[in-house]
Amino acid sequence: MNILYGPFAAKGLQPFDRCIAPDWHINSSGQVNKNVPNPSLISFELSDATHLLQTQILPHLPPGWQPDLLLFVIPERYLIPLDLHLMPCPLVVLVEDWYFNFEMLKAHQALFDYWLVDHTAVPLFRQAGIERVHGFQVFALDLERFGGYADVEVRYDIGFIGNLRTTVHTRRAHYLARLAALSEDWRVGIATERYGEDYIRFFRQCHLIFNYSIHGEFNMRCYEALGCGRLMLLEAQNQEAPLFLIPGEDYVSYRPEQLEQLIAYYLHHPQERERIALNGRRAIQRYGARQLWAELKALLAAGLASGEIRAQEHRILRQGQLQNLIWSVGPPFNQLTVAGDLIQQELNQGLDPRLLSDLAVLHYIYWLTEGLPADSASLAQATSLLEKALAHTPMHPIAAFNQGQVRALQQRFAEALESFLRCIAQLEQSTAADWPWGLVAYHSLHRAFEKFFHPWYMRQSQLQYSHTDPEQLAAARRKLLLAHAYRHAGDLQLTLGQAEVAYQSWQRALRLGRGGLGDLLPNLMRLCLDLKRPEQALEAWASGFGDPLAPELWLMHCWALAAAGQVQAAQAWYWRYSQIKQGFLESLAQIWQQLFEGFAEAPDPRAVATWRQSRLALVPEVLWPAAGNSDFWLFGWCGLSWRLRLPEPPARFGAALGVDSESDSLSRPGVHFHYHLQLVDPSGAEPLLSASRSLQRVYHTRTDLAQGLLGIDLLPCSFPAEPAEPLAQLEDCQGPLYVMLLEDNWRLPL
């Protein structure tokens, strides 16, 4: 059986890339690595410049060599070749994170002949009309890599490593908050942004590994935790794990109410913990990448022999191709060009407002990725396309929504508001909504990968696979789009000085859609406090709070409670959050180190804004100070406002701190910090505390600097009973203070 496999990634993004040894490999430049004279498995890479199999890959195959099938992996992350439909052999696709882009995958049901997905997804794909789909362990791991580090010292009783984006992992965030709150009793380690050997070492440093899957799948962390010989805690609702392992023997399953109890039990019973961990390590060896690859080849051979895997007579590419291109476009302008050409070909056959809107979005993406000014031709072209779409179909809500976004970027705020109100009127009168494929939402489209975690898009994707009835799905889409339109209308109304109307718009947005609305809730609460309505701020928090890892929401809740005269309740909420945040020291310390390194390399404020868009949920806000301003305002998690006066007006933050971008050293190791403390009651009374303090710290490396800023703890300073109390506690405090840098002219309503 001859298999053409790809796109192959040297970094091992696909499940088998690190473990299988292809007979031949064709790289993105067309060079061929021939390991054997007569290949049966040929892997390939794709070039961003072409994405064409016929010209890039097929000419390099051995003379007369014909694939029995083409195995395409992870289409949710890669641009699908534009001529893939021309392949005469069956097209088999292996999907990992199908929930990222279920709509685009559905559009390719007429392209691929056979689908391999995790077992939990099989019913959903069949409901979507994809009949030839098979459940398989789509994640695989080179378990040999996880067998070392036997002598690593255990640093944590319970640990978790993974991304903290609550957009994707909303339910898991609540468990992580509970986990972090155990930091007073146990050594909790929660880490992120670790890779390679450092990633593996972290697992070995934990007694217990916490795991929670997105949709009940046997995810990669199952392999990693068990492969390291650590006891894994996995949610009892997981659907795939019992197919391969025995709960209670190979791993421990927990119900929501059991988590803390089970953690304490297995930490107090090390022999039982080690027995289950050893069983799990032995059991997972049966499912390493090499074993699964052999199983997959047998499955494919059987499917070919039975006729279950066969090429369709007619493949339809157009719809899925356009969606895949628009999904995948990014900084390489060739993809934008190809997508634009395909859309233009469709438009030549007749005007379609959806395609006009999509083409406008491509111009917007080009404007964003190139960092062009607001008066550039790209935004002007996007404006013209959207006007044409609305002239053709005046009641098209997506075009009106996009028009509002583009006009806002051009600082035409009144016109932008008019567009959003037009979108709202259309949606309020309708009962359904088009799929908003070409929707311009927020400003996080600067990198294709970031769109996987885009709040708007993830919520749309969740709607797609959680509503099987077409009418219910259309109603859910309309509701969410309407929520976003109200949210953006409120932003513009506040910009135009219409605070009361903005409040009403944001209230409506919050009622329509709780998730995927960005910073709507903290903005609404802040507006309520500005309008002297703390009770309404508390009502908004109660109805919309869904992210336990968002510090701003916790702090806004504390401020609202204090403004409502509930100071003791505010203290209790803050201390509850302080317990949670202690469990995140591992990831936050590393983030701060990366932050300062990034600033040393990025003098352009737009780079900081870009970093801000992709920050993790717990990373503090970062706003660039005004040019020539040497004052930074730092807001601590304790509820205090700090001002850091630097020695000289900074050209950029890294230079002001004496960071040498070529090494880890600091060119000016002696940095003098002047702290100005001020604690203000939210009701507008006189400051409860106002004092200045100078502190001399000497940092020799960027690492020292990052760790040094984490070495000042002011947690006891929140809502002090006596003004002198916080100053006294500054003398011998320990632990970290996390801060966020704010523009000097922006005052936080403490």
Structure write-up:
- By secondary structure, this protein is an alpha/beta fold.
- It has four domains: 149 residues; 144 residues, Glycogen Phosphorylase B (Rossmann fold); 189 residues, Serine Threonine Protein Phosphatase 5, Tetratricopeptide repeat; 158 residues, no CATH class.
- The protein is 44% helix and 12% strand.
- The chain is built from 28 helices and 18 strands.
- The strands form three sheets. Strands 3-2-4-1-5-6-7-8 form an eight-stranded mixed sheet.
- It is flat.
- The N and C termini lie far apart (68 Å).
At a glance:
By secondary structure, the protein is of the alpha/beta class.
Topology:
Blueprint: E1 3-6, E2 24-26, E3 32-34, E4 41-44, H1 53-56, E5 69-73, E6 91-94, H2 102-107, E7 114-117, H3 122-127, E8 133-135, E9 156-161, H4 170-180, E10 188-191, H5 196-204, E11 206-211, H6 220-227, E12 231-235, H7 241-244, E13 252-254, H8 259-268, H9 270-284, H10 289-306, H11 318-328, H12 333-347, H13 353-370, H14 377-392, H15 397-409, H16 413-429, H17 455-466, H18 470-495, H19 499-512, H20 520-530, H21 534-544, H22 551-563, H23 567-582, H24 585-601, H25 605-613, E14 631-636, E15 641-645, H26 653-656, E16 670-680, E17 687-698, H27 702-709, H28 724-729, E18 739-742
Parallel strand pairs: 1-4, 1-5, 2-4, 5-6, 6-7, 7-8, 9-10, 9-11, 11-12, 12-13
Antiparallel strand pairs: 2-3, 14-15, 14-18, 15-16, 16-17
Helix pairs in contact: 4-23, 11-12, 12-13, 13-14, 13-15, 14-15, 15-16, 16-18, 17-18, 18-19, 19-20, 20-21, 20-22, 21-22, 22-23, 24-27
